[in-house]
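Researcher: Excuse me, tokens okay?
***
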Amino acid sequence: MFPAGGMGKYGKTFEDMQKKLQKLDVDLKERVVEAAAGGGMVKVKVNGGEEVVDIKIEKDVINPDDKGMLEDLVLAAVNEGIKKAKKLREAELAKITGMVMPGLM
């Protein structure tokens, strides 16, 4: 399948791409997206590694008699933040591979 001497240029290309992907993982952890719910009453920040790095909640939305609403807002904001982080990751991955591959990393 490959010429004598191994994978040659294919192996080098694969190694280069692998290095770029490893660097991308590091770079994405430093990039942050923000999402909000409840008209901005709950805001979350998620890094490109899909880790929640910050949550801000306006005091006006904190009502001990309706904790379910606050839980729903936090959940909605976190899920939106993760979606945005995935899109960021996919866009950056496409720059390296030349194609969109949702869910690869």
Q: What stands out?
A: The longest helix spans residues 67-97.
